[in-house]
Amino acid sequence: MKDPTVNTTPSHFFAHLARMKLISRWPLMRNVCQENVQEHSLQVAMVAHALALIRNHHFGGALNAERIATQALFHDVSEVLTGDLPTPVKYYNPAIQQEYKKIEQIAEQKLIEMAPAELRDDYARLIDNSYHSEDEKFIIKAADVVCAYLKTLEELSAGNKEFELAKKRLDKILKDYHSPEVNYFLEAYVPSFSLSLDEITQE
Question: How many angstroms separate the CA atoms of 29 and 157, rounded?
C-alpha cells in the first residue's frame, strides 16, 4: 500500500539513463565488437573500484572504493543528452574542448533537475564531479582511460588494426600518470586481455 505521506512525482530521470545502452562508443572507428556507454560505465566502475582498493591495500590510501565505483557508474550519463563526441573532435583544440565541457555540465545539471526533488542532492553528488575529491576524480579518469586501453587490446587481438594508434596514445597517457595503482593494474590484470578464452581458462 502506498504511504499517503509520500508524494510521488513523475520523473524522466531513469528513462533517460536507460538510453545509455543506445549510445555507441568509438563512433568514427570500425569495431569488431560494438561497445555502448552503459557497458563502458559498468567496466569503468569495476576498474575504478579495483584501483581504489589497490591504492588502499598497497600504497597507503584511504579511499572509499564503493563510493568511487558508484560515482564511476554515472561518469558518462550526460551523453544521454549530448551523445558521445568522438575524441578527435572533442580534443581538436582547447577552445572546442572547453566549450564541450560546458555542454557536458549543462547536460549534467539538466539530468540532476529531472531527479525527484528529495533525491536531487544525492544524485548531484554522483553526477556533478565538483562534489568529488581530487583523488576520486583521478581514480575515475584513470579507470576510464584503462578501459579505453582494454578496448584497443581486444580490437587488436581480433585483428582490427584500426585501433593501433589509439593504443599507442592511451599507453602514453597511462604511463604519464606515474600512478602506482594504475601500474599495478596494468601489470597484474591487463596482459590477460590479449589472450583467448582457452588461454585464460587453462589451469
Answer: 16
Residue 140: per-residue pLDDT: 98
Other beta carbons within 10 angstroms of residue 87's beta carbon come to 17
Residues in a beta bridge with 24: 36
Q: Which residues of the chain register pLDDT less than 50?
A: none
Phi and psi at residue 29, in whole multiples of 5°?
-115, 145
Q: What is the pTM of this model?
A: 0.90
Name the one residue in this structure whose C-alpha cell is 547536460: 107
User: CA–CA separation, 112 vs 93, rounded Å?
Assistant: 29
CA–CA dist 91, 87 (Å, integer): 6
- Cα–Cα nearest to 136, from 59, 46, 48, 58: 48
Length of the chain, in residues: 203
Work out the angle between the directed axes of helices 180-188 and 37-58 (0-180°, nearest 10).
110
State the Cα–Cα distance between residues 105 and 124, nearest whole angstrom: 11
CATH class of the structural domain 13-190: mainly alpha
